[in-house]
Structures are given as C-alpha cells and as structure tokens.
Amino acid sequence: MRHSSFPRSSILVYGEDTIHSLVQSTVIAQVEALLENNQIQDAADLVNNFASGQALDSDEAETLEYIHQTIAFALFSQTRFVDAAPHFLAGALDPRILVSYFPELSRPLFSEDDEVDMYDGIAKRMPIEASVDDLIAANLVRNYSPHLPPSTREAPAAQEIHKILREEAIVMIKSVLQGFKGQGKFKQQEVTDTALAILFARSGDTTFLISHLESTNSVSLSAVEPVLLEAGEVGALCALLRARGDEGRVMEIWKGLVEGRYSDSSVSDPLSNMFALLESKQGKDRAMLRKWGVWLTARDSERGLTLLMSTKRSAKEKDREEDLSVLSELQQLHPSAARKFLEWLVIVRRRDDAELHAQLVQACVDELLECLQDESTLKLWRAKFASYTSQSSQKHALSPPSTQLQRPQSSFLTYFVSTTPDSPSKSARLKTLFALQALSGYNAEAVKSQIVASGFDKVLGLEVALLDGKMGMHRMALRALALTLRDPVSAETYARTGGVVVPSKAVEACGMNEWGALFAAKGGPGILEREKSSEGKGQLVRMLLEVYMEDGEPQQTTRLLSSQAASLDAVDVIPLVPPDWPLSSLSPFLTHSFQRTLHAKHEGQIIKAICAAENSKVFEDSYLTFREQGAIIEEADDDEDGDGEPESFNEKDSLAEKIALHLQDQQRSEVTVADVHPRASNGEEVDIR
C-alpha cells in the first residue's frame, strides 16, 4: 500500500476544541520560510536534495513543480532573469503566464477573455507589475533611488542597467520557450512557437527563425506576419506562407518587395520568384494567372506576355470577355505590351471580333504614321517608290509592243521587302499591309482619310490602293496599282483574285510566319482570296484592261490579254481596242480565244455522243425487262370518241410510252448534258470552223 507523502505524526494533543500534532515541517513550508528570509540559494539546494535519490510519485512531482515555480518567481521579482529560467522550466510553468509579462509578445496573442490555470500560492507570489519593463524600473527605484540624479528613469546609468536587464529577460524567455517547444496543449504550443518566432525576428536571428518556422506548424500567422514584415524578415514569412499553402499572400508580399514597400536582402529577385511561381501554376490555377499576369506584364513586358499568351484559352464567350478585360487593363498600364497582346489575340488566337480587328488596324496605322515622322525613314521610302516606278516606266518605254511577251517585273511589295534593310519601321509597314488586307470590321474610309490627312498618301500608295479596294472602288484601286505605282503584278493579282492586293504567297515570302499562317488559314478572320465567281473575276480583269487601254499601255494590255484570256470574251475586248493598234498585239489573245471556243464545241459534241451511246445501251438493257412485265390492260372509258366509236387501245403504244418515261428518268438521274455551244451576244450559236 502506497502511503501519502503528507507528513505523519505519532503525537497528538487534544484540546477542548482543537487537535494539535507534532510534525516535521513540509518542504513547501521550509522553502517558503527560506524565501521569506531571501535565502533563495538555500531554498534551491533544499529542492535539489528533495528531488535527488528517490522516485517521486505524482503528489511529490506536483509539489516539486510548485516549489520550482515559487523559487522562479522569487528570482524573477528580483530581476535575476537568467537564474530564474531553469526553475521556470523545471516547474513546468504555463508559458502563457511568463509571456504575459512581455507586451510585444502577448499583445497579438492574448485577448481579455483568455484564462490560465495556476496554483493559488503562485498567483500570490507573481510580481504585481504589468510588464518586465515595469518590474525592472521598480527594482531600479527600490535599489538606487534617490542616488541616481536627476531620476532613476532618466539617469544614463539607470538606463544602461535597464537595457542590460532587458536583454537578460529576453535571453530568459527565449531559453524557457525553447525548452517548452512541442509541449502542452495546442494553445500553449501556439503561444510558444509564435512568441519564439517574434523574438527571433526582432533580434535578427534569421537562421534560427527559418529553422524554427520549418520545424513547427503552430505559429499564429496573423500574429507573426506584421512582426516579420516590420523586422524585414520577408523571406521567412514567404517560406511560412508557402508551407501553409497561402501562395496568394506570398504573391502580395513579393509585390510589396518589388514596389519597395518591404525590404529583405535575402530575397534578391522577387519579380523572378513571382514568374516562377506562376509558371508552376500553368494549367492549374488560371484565376491566379489572370490576376497577376497584367501586373507582371507592366513590370516585365516580355516575360509577362509570354505568361499571358501561354495560358490555355477556348473560344467560349467567357474566355473572350476575359481576353478583352486583360487587353483593356494592359492598354492602361503598358500600351506597347497591349499592342503585342492584341496582335496575338487576332493573329495567333484568331479572335474573329470586329472590335479587335479595328483596334489592331488602328494600332498598326498609328505606328506606321509615327515611323514616317522620322525623316530618314520617309526619305528612304520615297526613294523606293521613285526607284520602282521609274524602272517600270523605263522598261515600258524601251519595249515597243510585240508578240514576244516579257516576264513582268516583281511586285512593289516584293521589291520593297528585298531592297529595304530590316528595321522596326519596315516591320511596321508590313504588318499594316497584312492587317489591312486580312482583317475585316474596320472603317476603311476613316483609315484612308487618316493617311491622306497625314500627307503620306503618295509614299503609301500600296496601302491607299488596298483601302480603295476594301471600299469597293475597284477602278480607282486598279488605276493606282497599274498606273500610279506601276505595279502590274499587284494589279493583275487584284483583278484575278477579286480584290486582293497582298496574296498569301507574298506574306510567306516576307518570313512573317504567324501572319502567313493567318493568310493560309481558311475560315480565319477575314477570309483571304475568297473564291469569286467567274463573272466577278471577269469584270475586274476587264476593268483592268480598260485602265491599260485608256492610258495607252499596249505592252501591258497584250500581256494581260494573254495571261487572262480565260476571263475575257473576245466580243467584249475587240470594241475596246484603239483603231491605231496593230493586229499583231491582239493575235495571241484571239488565237487562244478561238482555240478555247473550238475546244469547248468539240468537247460538247463528244459528251453528247457519249450520252447518246449510254442512252441506247440503257434502252437495250431495259427492253427485255419491260417485255417480261407483260401487257397493261386498261378498261375503256364509257365515253366514245368523236366518231361515235369506242376509243382504241394499243398495248404496244402503252409499252413504248412507259419505256420512254423510264429512260427520261434515268437520264436525268445519271447524266446531265450541258449546252456547251458558245453563243454570241445576240444569243445565237457561233459556228467556228
């Protein structure tokens, strides 16, 4: 049987209303008596003797904890902080009690409703001062007043002593909290870990701070975050936040570092850290990419645009609205980046949106006109225009009309690309041309007015001609290409393709792959080189022919007639030819035209003969089948014919009629014979022999 540790006595003295016992003093009583006489060291020795050499039961262990706490607060009250620390640890004091004497630690952790269990005797021995600073000041007054003039608080010596004692108090609380780390309930662990983090941050122990934060998960984030930010321990805070999974807050703090609101030498490149974090979120957290992509682009346009453009998007209305929102924000923060993003939306993402098309065209035109404000660029482009037109004029002047057709020169676009050095202005002009040609939804008239108002309409003749074509003024466009710019290649391309000045092959030859992909994509924004009807093509070719003839260009006219003979009718061309032109200039065209007409007639005759043969074969194959079906007997009508006799019935005539109907149905379903005979303008057939 285990006996109680309470002292026992064999001598009892009974009184009338009392009982007295002669017992040995308890350890608690002895320690308290020693402490009352300020014999703290003797009390500590007594405790050591009590705890050594024997196993303690629960009551004795509790008694020992109480005694250690009593000694600890006795030393604490005398500001002997370093000596008090081992007794606080041995007494298993609730760390919240000790932390409460440090306002910088307790303020973010405690509220007025927080309560802590403790021994009643310990509560009576705790210092009445609210903080360790007040305790130190009270001891200085008690020990040195009035010997330190002018006052104990203001005397330099007293202030130095206060500083030393304060540092010892910090050493004490650190050692006690480190000893309590990982012990007690969650609330006690939270207070311990948070207070330690605050202490390490305030003292600048970055290594210990990071090690501490990595080894615990009980730190109160709301309490430690402002302290870490104030102390400049931003890197440690970000590590803690990432460990907690709060990457959004990490981004906010890195943003503060970039903007200069925070500082931490351990975080050398917060902007790169932000890009790295967002790149790891590709395809996982689109909302975060959307939130930070624009802000990062404003700081680093190249990497920011790469991040925005790598985000997966669909053609849904929600994604479209998001793209427009991103574009609007970029236009406010970084116009040049917004221009690149707009170009990416239209050219790469193929956003078929009239508003985006109009914005991109306007941006290209504005950039082009800005480039022409540079005098060197303007002189170079004027020289290119003059050189191209003069070469073309000389070539035509020195080459009289003849039946020997010369190969046409290259287009102005090809000439410009091959002879102009690479530069931002050259790229701007090419992009403007491509945008004007490929995109739809912009106001061509307004764009042309802007170019004319700038005074650069002559040097930008190709662009103006393209805009005329967009507005449906084909004759003006053809005159500009064929006569003003002296560009027969572009003029014929325009007439042949139904209004296209810049074909897809020319774009591919410029080496701008993204634009080339747009031009080559059927069904993309602004379908290029649309399939026009033969009638529409013929009208533009004839219009170009009229332009050449009005200007007296026999060589170009002859070449056009030869190359586009399939789109022209000899009956329409002959009246346009001036009377003084030699017949030899029309010989190639007329020869080819007559040959095609004769070929078409013979082809029609062949097809007709083939169809007749097929009809005969079908008639022969079906005759036996219909004969096996037998006769079809029909009852005669009651009415008689005009002679008063009943109508006659011939089963052979009925069978022949049925076969004929069957052959007609089969002919319509299998073979359609077209009338390919050429006709004159009055509708009569032309017999060319």
Features:
689 residues; 2 strands; two-stranded antiparallel ribbon
Biggest sheet architecture: 2 strands, antiparallel
Query: pLDDT average, as an integer?
Result: 78
DSSP summary: helix tally: 34
- Overall geometry comes to elongated
The Rg value, from CA coordinates, equals: 51 Å
Q: What's the helical proportion of residues?
A: 55-70%
Secondary structure tally: strands: 2
Q: How much of the residues is beta strand, in percent?
A: under 5%
N-end to C-end Cα span: 142 Å
Structural class: mainly alpha
Low-confidence segments, ≥5 residues, pLDDT <50? 397-407, 522-535, 669-689
What does the model show?
The protein has 689 residues and is mainly α. The protein contains 34 helices and 2 strands. It has helices spanning 27-36, 40-51, 58-77, 81-90, 95-99, 103-106, 120-125, 132-144, 156-180, 186-203, 206-214, 221-231, 234-244, 247-259, 270-280, 286-299, 301-309, 317-333, 335-348, 354-371, 375-398, 412-419, 424-438, 444-454, 461-470, 474-484, 488-497, 504-509, 513-520, 534-550, 554-563, 570-573, 587-628, 651-670, and strands spanning 12-14, 19-21. It has a two-stranded antiparallel sheet with strand order 1-2. The chain is elongated and about 155 Å long. 30% of the residues are buried. Residues 397-407, 522-535 and 669-689 have low confidence and may be disordered.
